[in-house]
Amino acid sequence: MTVRLYDSATRETTDLVPVVPGQVSIYHCGLTVQGPPHLGHIRKEVVFDVLRRWLERAGYEVTIIANVTDVDDKIIAKGREQGRPWYAVAYENERALHAAYEVLGCTAPTYEPRATGHVPEMIEMMQTLIERGHAYAADDGSGDVYFDVRSWPAYGALSNQKVDEMQAAEDAPPEGKRDPRDFALWKGSKAGEPETASWPTPWGRGRPGWHLECSAMAAKYLGHEFDIHGGGLDLRFPHHENELAQSSAAGQAFARRWMHNAMLNLGGAKMSKSVGNTLSVSEVVKRFPAIAVRYYLLAAHYRSVIEYSEEALAETAVAVERITGFVTRAAELVGPGEPGEVPAEFAAAMDDDLAVPAALAILNGSVTRGNGQLATGGPELAATLAEVRGMLDVLGVDPLSPVWVARGGASGADAALDSLIGDLLDQRATARADKDFAAADRVRDQLTAAGIEIEDTPHGPRWTVKGQ
RNA sequence: GGUGGGUUGGCCGAGAGGCGAGGCAACGGACUGCAAAUCCGUGUACACGGGUUCAAAUCCCGUACCCACCUCCA
Fold first, then answer.
1. What is the pLDDT of residues A338-362, one digit of tens each?
2. Distance between CA atoms of residues A247 and A233, nearest Å
3. Is it true that domain A309-407 has CATH number 1.20.120?
4. Which residues 91-150 of A interface with strand B at a CB distance below 7 A?
5. Are A388 and A363 in contact (CB under 8 A)?
6. Could you tell me the distance in Å between the CA of residue A13 and the C1' of nucleotide B18?
7. Which of residues 305-364 of A touch strand B (CB under 7 A)?
8. I want to staple A431 with a disulfide (CB 3.0 to 4.6 A). Which of A51, A322, A436, A446 is the partner?
């Protein structure tokens, strides 16, 4: 089987052919840690986590690098507002990002380099670009270093734009720029900025420009040519366009393909701090089970916009309960087993540019079949369970995975509860055998009132704590 | 002004020339002492107006509306 992916540079879906056979190297733009991650940020993490899982299933060894932009204007401003060092702000939000990975079951990237740790690599790259005539230090004494857009004819290739048709930036005064579209590789430090937020260079003290850091770190950890560069669609221009220009102008082959995930909208607009329509991961996870939130984010195709709605998320939670319900019931009967091989149609869907919606249709079919086998149990059920767990494992929503099981914090209390409820269910069984249904229902009502749901199965009654 | 993407049944959400993806909700049935859970069944949806074709949600032309990017942004 061949994994095929859409390349947003060429706008075509093509076979994934890695630079190094058997290995896939991925760089995706992480966060500028100026605040805790919102649902839109984490959608990207979930998308690339599913990609990684699928590539690993396909037998590839996957390396993922995601940068952490830990210094920029907003982080510095926030530190000033809050009366603490800018790096304390950055670090706190970096930890919040890691907490979000964890709560949604995302495996952390192979490595997350920080911008501030890669200044020498950036200086080296700027020197190369200056020598090659594609960059220049501003002659206004600002310490800024700019990329010379006019010197690179391919500029605009990624976003399919022509330099002359672009609107020039109006906000930034073009002081030291030769062309208004030139972008900063390096930002000279300004008066009043903390000393800790600047690093020495041949052009004066300053700090990394956002675009350059990604080029420098991608090259350092993945080499001059790697397989996939990813990120949110909003980064395609200017950020990714600029990265591509810098790296290729510096003589590097850079990314073989580009993968952009669509945005998560709230109230008809992209979720973003500047619009103010954000929903933090930590808040959403308080209202809905984390596994349902993850499922919600991955259930739509990664290139489709998700218009966030609480109702849709609530519906998703119900759909997830049907799936997890099957897995837990089946596991009680035949044992959990291990995640197994996925059906061919599921694999075909995933191979086709991660067609998760089509893959979920196959998953649901297997769950329906499995639910039908629940009455009899046996090897057929065990096989269906393995197949379902295999599919859920690819998507990172296998309820029996340690990632989700550990949540409850199993303790002696569970055993005690099971014993107590077991006694009550025995009383109910006796009452039912005597056809004393009023007494039987009283027991069930009592348990329901305590948040315990009872269902009678061909193998006897089972209980669950409501909402878990 | 430029570059992309979108509009699918009550809701979510795939598909991209020809057999009604899938889920949620609803209704009917089976199972149950009654429930719950589960299973089975029930829907002729593709923004609008033209056109191409034996056949269009899917291709072409036009119109309307929406989103993203061209500025920090996953």
1. 999 999 999 999 999 999 999 999 9
2. 20
3. yes
4. none
5. yes
6. 25
7. 305-307, 309, 311-312, 315-316, 318-319, 321-322, 325-326, 329, 355, 357-358, 360-361, 364
8. A436
